[in-house]
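User: Predict the structure for this protein chain, please.
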Amino acid sequence: MNKVLRDAEEAAALVPDGATIMMGGFGLCGIPENLVTALQRRGTKDLTIISNNAGIDDFGIGLLLKARQVRKMISTYVGENKEFERQYLQREIEVELVPQGTFSERIRAAGAGIGGFFTPTGYGTLIAEGKETREINGRHYVFEQPLHADFAFVKAWQGDPLGNLIYRRTARNFNPVMATAARVTIAEVERLVEPGEIDADHVHTPGIYVKRLLQGHGYSKRIEKRTVRHG
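Assistant: Here is the predicted structure, written as structure tokens:
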């Protein structure tokens, strides 16, 4: 099956208002920026975004926040986005902060069909309020439920029309696990190659997890914080 879409706009048209979307990326690395921009242009609203972080004010998820298209964020770190901070302090957006390891495992559990797991992280803190706790071998644990989504937007370096994906270096981050945990996974790739060009031993995300994909363009390869040392 050829899963290739014409462009990011065609992909964004599949997403209804009120959808829950996982978005890969860590800092500014591995962000599905073509898909995010297309969603922003389309004006899709009342979104729940599951992402490690909230981007910055003028890039990534920050574009959706600035356009007031996000109703809720489920994240681990949101400290680089002033617009997000403003909306949170003004109670204009709902926020669920999750410890990063728990965040990853909740997504992995969704993809693996696991009903939940116990973790010591967060026990005795606000994170544990309202959740089941249990003592196991003398240590206290908190029960965490899996994180599912309607859509996953992932960014890969290379893909083929069957949906097989390869990520490049740190852009691999949350993308592979998110690709398994959504009802519909849409990937944007830097390089679209013919079936068979990707060695089966090199595939990071098998095509069975990917519903649609497209070739992206215009990647800016931003640096989140540039530090210069004068010798």
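DSSP finds six helices and eleven strands in the chain.
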